[in-house]
Amino acid sequence: MKKIAVLTSGGDSPGMNAAVRSVALKANYHQIEPVAVQYGYKGLIDKNFLPLMNYNLGDMVHTGGTKLFTSRFPEFTDQVVQEEAVSNLKNENIDGLVVIGGDGSYKGAQALADLGFPTVAIPGTIDNDVGGTDFSIGFDTAINTAVDAIDKIRDTATSHERIFVVEVMGREAGDLAYWSAIAAGADMAVIPEIEFTTEGILEDIDNSRLLGNKRYLIVLSEGVMKGYEMAEDLSCEGRHKVRVSQLGHIQRGGNPSPKDRVIATRLASAAVETLIEGQSGICIGMRNTRAERNKISDVLEQETNFISEINSKRFDFLFN
Question: What is said about its interaction partners and assembly (predicted)?
Fold first, then answer.
């Protein structure tokens, strides 16, 4: 290979820049020219190609977001558009592509591989909802951000003896809510993978107050319902006044944690190696601290990652 391109797609996540930097350095080590594709899959159509060595790589490892920019591009599901992307890549003499993103980005990578263009994907999403990996790039940083916020909310919840519902991101996966609830010492985690009832939460609040705990913290995954909807349900009988805090997009920003920087660097390096070896349609994940290769098609057929589901019963004692 003489040229390898890299793009970031979908929602941004802390550590994407570290992954891009690793692609550039690994490619350069093997005397391969690294190319940046700006604005994700849309950049393949708009021909937004730029030599990656033009970037200040030394300042990328610690920054959040993505310096390559990203965008949603639903038109990429059209095969005609995919074929145009392949044509543009070939016209730029690009021999392989590394895609950084979530499940939607994986589908785009698989489509390019199916058209015969060498493509490898690595997981970049705070939701941790991509199969084939224990952790996605950005998940650890998002947990740290959420826990820092919940710790602060705990202070005011305790001061005013209030019930708080803290809504966190995660889409249809409860990993972010579950992990941050455990780390922050919350009283309840409400996630899509585990059934719950409003009556059950109210009963637990009453039991908690009988034990002398005047404040109550609930970490709610956005995939279940909105925080204000839960607050309304819990307040419907007039027994409790419930406050809501939606952490929102602060969870997607900020400097990546050291763990995310290392994971991003290792996965991106393995992605370049995979392309050099002539493999395509592969995604690289982190399993038991090792970079592991899987077929993108196999990973997309899995329901999802759901570490929460695997570990939930081990931590039931924390929420009872």
Answer: Homotetramer.
252 is in an annotated binding site: yes
Q: Where in the chain are the domains? A: 3-138+256-305, 141-252
* Res 306 pLDDT > 60: no
What pLDDT sits at residue 311?
Answer: 57
Q: Which residues are catalytic?
A: 127
CATH of domain 3-138+256-305: 3.40.50.450
Burial class of residue 137 (count of CB atoms within 10 Å of its CB; 0-12, 13-18, 19+): buried
Span 291-320, mean pLDDT?
Answer: 73
**What's the pTM?**
0.93
CATH class belonging to 141-252 = alpha beta
Is 249 marked as a binding-site residue? yes
